[in-house]
Amino acid sequence: MPALDKRRRGRLKDWRANGARGGGGNVKTSLLAIVLGTATLHAQPEGIWQGYDGEWGHVSRQLMALAQATPAEKFAWRPAPGVRSMSEVYMHIALANFYLLSVTGPKMPADIKSSDMEKTVTAKADVIDWLKRSLDAVKTAHASVKPDDLQRKVKIADRDANVDGMYLRIIIHANEHMGQLIAYARMNGIVPPWSKAGE
What is the structure's pLDDT at 68? Predict the structure, then answer.
C-alpha cells in the first residue's frame, strides 16, 4: 500500500510538472494512470473478467441477492399497468434460462406445465426457488460443454445459431433484466445488497 501511494504521488507530480502546462497527451496518460492506480485499491466483484463461468456466477449471485433483499409484498409491484411485476421479471428470467438452455440440449424441467407460469408463480419463496434452479442449470450445463460443442449448430425461432451463441444470449438476457430489477428496486427504496448504503 505505501508503495502504491508513492507511485500515485509520483504520477501526480509528473502530471503537475508536464501535463498541467499543456502537455496534451501527457495529461490524459497521467490521469489514466492515476485512475488505474486508484482502481487497484478497491476489491473487484468476484467473477468479473473471469470468462463466461465467472461472469455467470457474478450475475447469478446478484440476481439471488436482489431477490432475497426484496420484501415479499414488493414482488407484486409493477411500475405501470401492463408492465411486468417484480415476480414476473424474475420468472421471465428463470423460464427463459430453461428454454434457451433446452435449445442446446438439456430438457426443460418436467414441472414446467404451463406457459402462464410467469404470471402464476408469484410468492417470493417459489420465485426464488425457480430462479435458483434455472441459474444452477445454466452453470452445470455450461461447465459440461466441450469446446468443440460450442460451435454445434442449433435452430431457434426458425433461425440458425450455435451453442456458443445461445449461452451468450442467456447471459445477456440475464444482465438486461438485472438492470430492470435494479431500477424496480431503487424505485421502491431497496438498495441492491452489493451497493454501499445511501448510493
Answer: 98
Tell me the whole-structure pTM to 2 decimals. 0.77
| 70/140 same-domain check | yes
For residue 66, what is its C-alpha cell? 436482489
What amino acid is encoded at 90 in this protein?
A: Y
* Cβ proximity of 56 and 62 under 8 Å: no
Of 115, 174, 110, nearest in space to 139 by CA: 174
Pairwise CA distance, residues 2 & 182, whole Å = 37
Q: What are the tens digits of pLDDT across the range 131-169?
A: 999 999 999 999 999 999 999 999 999 999 999 999 999
Q: Within this chain, do residues 62 and 160 fall inside the same structural domain, yes or no?
A: yes
Q: State how far the Cα of 60 lies from the Cα of 114, in Å rounded to an integer.
A: 25
Residues 23 and 100 in one domain: no
Q: Which of 106, 109, 85, 53 is nearest to 177 (CA)?
A: 85
Distance between CA atoms of residues 188 and 152, nearest Å: 44
How far is the CA of 141 from the CAs of 11, 90, 97, 145, 174, in angstroms? 47, 20, 11, 6, 16
Distance CA 145, CA 162 (A): 13
Instruction: Give the domain extent around 18.
Output: 2-39
